[in-house]
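Lecture 7 notes: from sequence to structure.
We start with the chain below.
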Amino acid sequence: MTDHIAPDLAAFFDQEDARLADQIRRFGFSVQMIGGGRCSAPGCCAPLSTRPFAYTVGLFGIGHPELVVVGLDISESSRALNAVGRTVLDGGRIMPDVEMTASGWSRRFVAEAVPNPGDIAFNANRFYQRPPEFSVPLLQLSYPDRRGRLPSDPSYSGSRKRQPRPGEWDALA
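Predicted structure tokens for the same chain:
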């Protein structure tokens, strides 16, 4: 039995593949925004997400995990991933559990390994033709609350619903 994809969805995926390839060729990676009121795939316009997130596609192609940020608006997500992604393209390596900063993003962050990347990075896995169980790796960029405490700190006062810990969320929840 073969999977059948509706013609309009197949056309969308063809265009999306071309767009991603072009952006990766031109900029080194692409930023995928999920939630926040935008949806371009036919038939997928769900209610606004209470937990927007964004992730890169393209860093895996140069031997680095993709990056994901959760709970920021479109502008801040884009700023974060572009700044940290440029660090990688410039030869830097984002290491798990190391507090860092990136030129172009005003927040400090800690990158944390995501244990369930196949439940999140659908477009990256599609682009690299990887099934969810052999997903591209993801690092979640965790950022501090207003008091400067990171989500791993027990006294973190930010919204855990908006910025959940790695492994406690997925793209569909």
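Points to note: Residues 7-27 form the longest helix (21 residues). The chain has a mean pLDDT of 88.
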